[in-house]
Structures are given as structure tokens and as C-alpha cells.
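A further point concerns the way the authors explain their paired sequence and structure data. Nothing conveys this as quickly as seeing an actual entry. An entry of this sort, consisting of the sequence and the corresponding C-alpha cells, reads as follows:
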Amino acid sequence: MNNLVGGLTDGIAFGSVYALLAIGLVLAYRTSGVFNIAFGVQAYASAALYYTLHTKHEWPVVPAFVLAVGVLAPLIGIVLDRTLFRYLRSAPEMSRLVTALGLLVAIPGIVQLKFDQSLAINSKGIVPNGDTVYTWGPASITRDQLAIVVCTALVAVGLTVLFRRTSIGLRMRAVVESPRMAELSGINSDRVSTGAWILTSFIAGLAGVLLPQITGQQVVDVYFTTLLTSAIVAAVVAALSSIPVAFAAGIGFGVLQELLNRFLPTGSVVASNIRPGLPFIALFLVLALDPRLRNRRATTDPLSGVDPPPPAPVAASRSKQVATLTRGFWAVAGAVYLYYVYFHGNDSVLDDAVRITIYATIFCSIVIVTGLAGQLSFAQATFAGIGAAVSSQLATELGMSVLVTILIGAAVAALIGVLISLPALRLGGIFLTLFTFSIALAFENVFLKFPWVTGGIFPEASPRPQLGPIDFADNHNFLTLSIVVFAIVATLVVFVRRGTTGQFLAAVRGSEVAAASIGISSTRARIVTFGLSAFIAGLGGRSEEHTSELQSHSDLVFRLLL
């Protein structure tokens, strides 16, 4: 009984962390139309400043809190609105998400120019003696935990009242749906948008100074991003629209995690492999099974048609002479680079050239799913890892020809891509992207821990291919093979883009309804997209040396995607 009550108490505290971040995600989406995946690193920026002022330089709580939460956080919101998102109001949802992804990488890099997070430990909270414990029978809670529970509840109540009872909340939602129509009613869209970003960033700053007290008193950007993943589950349960539901879902998810942590046998497969990946599995199940998310599309401005058509891409409008010169320049530059690599480069240069070529092959899969189908997928690194795992295991365990195992690995990746596309058929926009995100995170954090995937902690070295007398263990030969594979894949992508499949994908990307009216199946198009892109990624994902490199290989591809 004591263990159960303790689990509930700690679960509510941790759940408040998820709830606060989930509320921030819902708030950002409702007031700006941006799924702000950089919300966690915005919180990290305020946490870093608060730690520097309060913990390191021993400033009093009030001035440190005011500067970190009341000044820096809103300032970040103003900068993001004025320099980026104000110009993306009418842009596709995918464009805004990619911009937020860039911020996910850029903000920690900027903060760490002046902040050494490796030394940021023993962070102090906003209440004195935060480790003081209050006990009621079997239940106990610290002051720091109580502070975040109270703050999260106040934020949830305050924002709910704001959106349901005030004209300001109504204006924020109106500007997101149609800034032009809001302006026709006398609303200053720019001012409302800036206010929304200030409010969202303030919530991020508040989360930043509260979270380290619950998560180990260390200010590290990766912790905030990891916590955000769990918060995404609560935000998706709320369908990115309901703040009270996001609050309740965050609390519930925190309690569930804590109870599983306390009651699951420590040595079981579930405890060691499944429980750490619970947020990713939960996100996958919610997206796949929640009927509210099916066939939902991004809100579009009903007055967007008054804009003149956008200019044609430069590649489509430039003259043949300019196109020929451009292609000739890059052909010469590539030839010079390869000459240097083959005849003057050392082993390090050769290794870099091999990796560049392999990643270029994998990125061709992104051309299929994003460039042709108009969908943003985070699962391409996963398909690359699957292809690498299958190829390495077949080559080392069964002694099969490596060239054959590479094709089998790509085929298995394609099959899994098709299977993954089936539950995602009714998802669209941001929810489809989050579905692929859950697949990628589940693979990284769950499946790569199983020995039958990676070959164990110390896997046997996977051999390089060999074709007759040609041994691709030599880096020069392997680079040649990689270039040939890339050339074949790139040619295939060009033929697909110019062929019937590419035209079908372009039609579905433009309008699924219009495409269906002329007999084009969006279901078949999406299955083909996932299958073909997964095959290409799996083909390029062959690990060069060891299956133990699968996780770092996949992680690097994901970072390059950002």
C-alpha cells in the first residue's frame, strides 16, 4: 500500500512535468499554428540563465527568476515571431515544423557558447529549501515537487479561462485560422501573434526553471528534449487542442510510468527494454488508434486565395544555358573532389567520402517521401538501421554473400515500411509526421536493445562485400561501389519523379480529393511512397564495419535530416 501511494505521489510530480510541457505544445499550436518541437530547448535556455544567476552566482530568487522567465523567455518569443514565424503564417504546416526543427539544433548551440552544461549540477529551485519533505501518512512530497504541481495547475486553469472566457484568447485563435479575416474585424494580427509567442515562451521559461528540480538537478539540453517526447504523448491525446485534457493526460502518463517503475520485476524483458520506451510506444498507439486524429488536416486560411500565385522555382524558370552551366560546374567540382580523394586522400578522407556517399543514398529516400509525396518523415533513419541490421546479421550469422544480404535488408526495410504505412493511412499533416517520429524513437530506444537486432553487446565484425576478384574491404573499391549504388538510386528517383508514379504523387500532394476524383488512389500512393523510400533507405543503411554502430549511424542520419 505504501508503495502504491508513493508511486501515485511521485507520479503526479513527474506527470506535472509532462503536463506543463504538453500545455506549452498545445498553447503554441493553438495560438501560432506551429507544432513547436523546439519548446524543450526554449525551456533549456531559461534554465541555463537561471542556473548561472541563482546557483552559480548566488543571485536572489526573484531577480534571477525575473531575468530568466520574465525577460529572456519573452524576448526569445519576440525574436522567433518577428524574424521567422510571422513570415510563415500562410506556409504549409510542414515548413513551420522544419523551421522548429532547425531551432531544436540552433538554440542549444547558441546557449552553449556561454554556458558549460557539463558543470551545471545541483540546480536550486524557486522555493527555499526545496528538498524539504512533507509527509502525510504513506504519502510524501518535496517542496520542489509541490511547486511544480501547483504552478502547472495554475497555468492549466489560467490558460483554460483565457481561451474560453476572454476576447484575447478568441483573437489568438482567429489569427491562427485567418489573419486576413481577423484584420477585417479590426484586429492587429501582428500584435496578437507577438503576444501569443510571448505567452508561449513565458510558459517555456517557467518550465525551464522548474524542471531540473524534478529531473536530477542538472541543466542539460538533452533532458529537456527527452521530457518533451513524453509530453508529446499528452499533447496528442489532447488532439493539440484541449489544455485541460493535456493537463490530465500528462498527470496520468506520469503516474503510469511511476507505477510501472515500482511494480514491474526489475530483471524482466519488459522492465529492461519496454519500460524505457513506453513514451514512444504510447505515442505510436495513440496516433494509430485514436479515431479523432483520422483524416484531420491542417487548417488553411479561407482567404489565402487572394494572394497572387507564388513565383515558379528557379530551377523551372532558368534558361537551358544557365541549367547546363550549373550542372557542368557541379560535375567538374565533383570530379576534382573525387580525384583528390582517390589519388591524394588518406584513410580519413576516404572514410568521409564513403559516409558522404552512403548518406546521399539514404537522403534519396527523403526525396521520395518529402519531395514527391509532400510528407515529412522521421523514420528514414529507422529504415536505414533496419536494412543495416538485417544485412549484418545474415552475413555474420548465416555466412551469406554480403551483396545479397544488402538487397535482402533493403527488401525487409521496404516490407516494414509498407506495414507501417497501413495504420498511418488515415493520418495527415503533423499527425503523420509524429507517427513516423514515434516509429523512429521506438526503434532507437527499444528494438536496438535486443541482441537479435544488433548481434549483442559485442557483435561480430560484419565483412565488406566481395565480387569475384574485387575485394571491397579496400576503401577505394568500397567508395566506388558506394558511388555506383548512389548513381543507380539517383537515376531511379529521377525516373520515378518523371514517370506515372511521380505524377500521381504530385496530384495527391496537391489535393487528395481532386486526385480521387480522377481515379488516383491516395492509399496506394502512400503505400508506394513508404515502401519505395524504405527500400532506398535500407539499401543505403548498410553499416560499414560493425552492427554495434547501428544506433550512432541512425542517430547521425536523423541529425543530418534536421
